[in-house]
Amino acid sequence: MSDELKQISRILELALKLPPEARAALAGSLLERLDTTVDEDAGAAWEAEITRRIRELDSGAVRAIPRSEVRRRLSTG
What we know:
Elements: H1 3-15, H2 20-34, H3 42-59, H4 67-76
């Protein structure tokens, strides 16, 4: 195993010993640093998608599913 892989393995081992909140913060920090490019159109695309979904809900074209139902469906496969 290369030195880099050993180092990564050791860092992972230490990170997994952290409490869940700290692991989540660490993961978030690492992910933020992966994506260095900014998609200028992403904000507008999300705004359009949110507007479309709200319109569908308001018109009755789609209906919301309660979280408990989603969880039940996911757990039963």
